[in-house]
Design brief:
The structure is a single chain. The protein is an alpha+beta fold. It has a single domain, classed as NADH Oxidase. The protein is built from seven helices and four strands, in the order ααβααβαβαβα. The protein has a four-stranded antiparallel sheet, sandwiched between helices. The longest helix is centred in the middle third of the chain and has 21 residues.
Length: 172
């Protein structure tokens, strides 16, 4: 099954990319990435995620830089996608957080499939109030899950993983 091979290949080849060229990310690519996130699984199919795209000329970008130790990535990315949960659309915090993770993974894989580089910025959520304020959003309405920084890769990513045997609680 060719489709299965390409999905598995994307999972194995995708890496976090933190340096980007100056080339802009097309609106078409951004829409494709957002659509991939939209198709993630969610409990009761509630789809509580919401997206905010921040392009290089958006003044919120500079405010967001102050909310993370990864300001250099926020500053140089071709685009940022804030992934949020809309509180009124949530029904189970654990399931909704898991769904948001699946949503982010779908978007990272879509960016990779489009030849773009991306990285999941998670540290930025440690101060919800500051990050949401930087985005001009209310913490009463939204919970920030991640910011995805993306662009045309200026470097290749590298990563390693533990052996599967180290992760199994018991042999099967």
């Amino acid at each position: 099954m060719q489709g299965t091979d390409s999905v598995l290949q994307a999972i194995l080849e995708r890496r976090s990319i933190r340096k980007y060229t100056d080339a802009p990310v097309s609106r078409e690519n951004l829409l494709t990435i957002l659509d991939a996130g939209r198709w993630a699984p969610s409990g009761l199919n509630n789809q509580p995620w919401r997206f905010l795209v921040i392009l290089p000329d958006d003044p919120r970008r500079e405010r967001l830089e102050a909310c993370t130790r990864y300001a250099h990535i926020v500053r140089t990315a071709g685009a940022l996608i804030a992934v949020l949960l809309e509180r009124s659309a949530m029904y189970s915090p654990m399931k909704d957080h898991q769904g948001a993770g699946a949503c982010v993974q779908n978007m990272l894989l879509a960016a990779h499939a489009l030849g773009l580089g991306a990285v999941w910025l998670g540290q930025i959520i440690n101060d919800q109030d500051a990050a949401l304020s930087a985005l001009s959003l209310s913490p009463d309405e939204y919970e920030l899950q991640a910011v995805i920084a993306l662009g045309h890769p200026a470097t290749a990513g590298a990563s390693s993983r533990k052996n599967l045997a180290e992760l199994l609680l018991e042999e099967f």
